[in-house]
């Protein structure tokens, strides 16, 4: 799949909650094929302390308007600068990067599990699954009610099971505590979020012999397998999250057996 280095135009910057926002960017040349699970590397300008591009998951794609949506959490100077992007500004992206989730077969029962900003790639994945004729279900976990992000958009695609750590909305606890997660028999589970959450989801899937893919959120400086800072130990040796991932089958990850 071909890669681009391109200036895209900001068409929207929408604040979702404190520290979370969605930036939509448009390509005048038309978008290439982008697969669910892939990411972009964003050049951050006007931020003197930000030297490297920032990897951001593709949150959604609209080919009719040639726009890519990026769900971003402010975590430092680079993402803080991105939070101040205005309509009409341009940002430079390298995209699309990385591999993709494996789409389910017709008739399979699938669950998409995400926590916080880790739910970013699951909207586009859910849309693709819905277009294939399967209605996905979602298990989304947040710290509290004020941190809940875009669950209405997910509800447009399928059933949403919410969990908050403080019990202020939905089920009280973590997504692995949601009854539907534990009591239903899923054919496939897709997951992205904090590593402890992904490990808990993966352990439950291994225990129940459920196919599971996770999207790792390792630090990525280059996005092209050159800097080697995103190495992850696997059953096939050390692999780059940016080129061999970020999506991995849990049975290929050594961190499932390292504790």
How does this structure look, described?
By secondary structure, the protein is α/β, with parallel strands linked by helices. The chain has 2 domains: 94 residues, Elongation Factor Tu (Ef-tu), domain 3 (Beta Barrel); 106 residues, Nucleotide-binding domain of ferredoxin-NADP reductase (FNR) module (Rossmann fold), CATH 3.40.50. It is 16% helix and 35% strand. The protein contains 5 helices and 15 strands. The strands form 3 sheets. Strands 10-9-8-7-11-12-15 form a 7-stranded mixed β-sheet, with helices on both faces. A hairpin with a 2-residue loop joins strand 13 and strand 14. The radius of gyration is 18 Å and the shape is globular.
Considering the chains and any ligands shown, give keywords for the structure:
globular, 16% helix, Rossmann fold, six-stranded antiparallel beta barrel, 259 residues, Elongation Factor Tu (Ef-tu), domain 3, 5 helices, alpha/beta, 2 domains
Mean pLDDT: 91
Taking all Cα atoms into account, the compactness measure Rg is 18 Å
Biggest sheet record = 7 strands, mixed
Class by alpha and beta content: alpha/beta
CATH topology of the largest domain: Rossmann fold
Helical residue percent? 10-25%
What fraction of the residues are assigned to beta strands by DSSP? 25-35%
Estimate nothing, just give the exact number of structural domains: 2
Gap from first CA to last CA: 36 Å
Query: So, CATH architecture of the largest domain?
Result: 3-Layer(aba) Sandwich
Uncertain segments of ≥5 residues (pLDDT<50)? none
Per DSSP, the total helix count is 5
Q: CATH homologous superfamily of the largest domain - what is it? A: Nucleotide-binding domain of ferredoxin-NADP reductase (FNR) module
Name of the top-level CATH class of the largest domain: Alpha Beta
What's the shape?
globular
Largest sheet: spatial strand order: 10-9-8-7-11-12-15
Find the count of extended strands (DSSP E, 2+ residues).
Answer: 15
SSE pattern, N- to C-terminal = EEEEEHEEHEHEEHEHEEEE
């Amino acid at each position: 799949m071909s890669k681009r280095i391109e200036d895209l135009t900001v068409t929207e910057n929408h604040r979702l909650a404190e520290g979370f926002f969605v930036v939509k960017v448009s390509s005048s040349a038309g978008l290439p094929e982008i697969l669910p699970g892939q990411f972009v590397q964003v050049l951050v300008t006007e931020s003197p302390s930000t030297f490297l591009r920032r990897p951001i998951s593709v949150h959604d794609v609209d080919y009719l308007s040639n726009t890519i949506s990026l769900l971003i959490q402010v975590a430092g100077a680079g993402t803080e600068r991105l939070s101040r992007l205005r309509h009409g500004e341009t940002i430079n992206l390298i995209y699309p990067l990385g591999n993709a989730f494996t789409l389910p077969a017709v008739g399979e029962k699938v669950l998409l599990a995400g926590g916080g900003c880790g739910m970013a790639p699951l909207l586009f994945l859910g849309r693709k699954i819905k277009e294939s004729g399967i209605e996905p279900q979602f298990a989304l976990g947040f710290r509290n009610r004020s941190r809940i992000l875009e669950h209405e958009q997910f509800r447009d695609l399928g059933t949403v099971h919410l969990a908050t750590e403080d019990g202020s909305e939905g089920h009280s606890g973590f997504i692995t505590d949601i009854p539907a997660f534990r009591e239903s028999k899923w054919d496939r589970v897709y997951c992205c979020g904090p590593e402890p959450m992904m490990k808990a989801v993966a352990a439950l899937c291994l225990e129940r012999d459920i196919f599971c893919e996770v999207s790792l959120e390792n630090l990525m400086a280059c996005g092209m397998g050159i800097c080697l800072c995103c190495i992850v130990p696997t059953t096939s040796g050390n692999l780059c999250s940016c080129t061999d991932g970020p999506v991995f089958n849990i049975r290929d990850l050594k961190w499932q057996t390292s504790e």
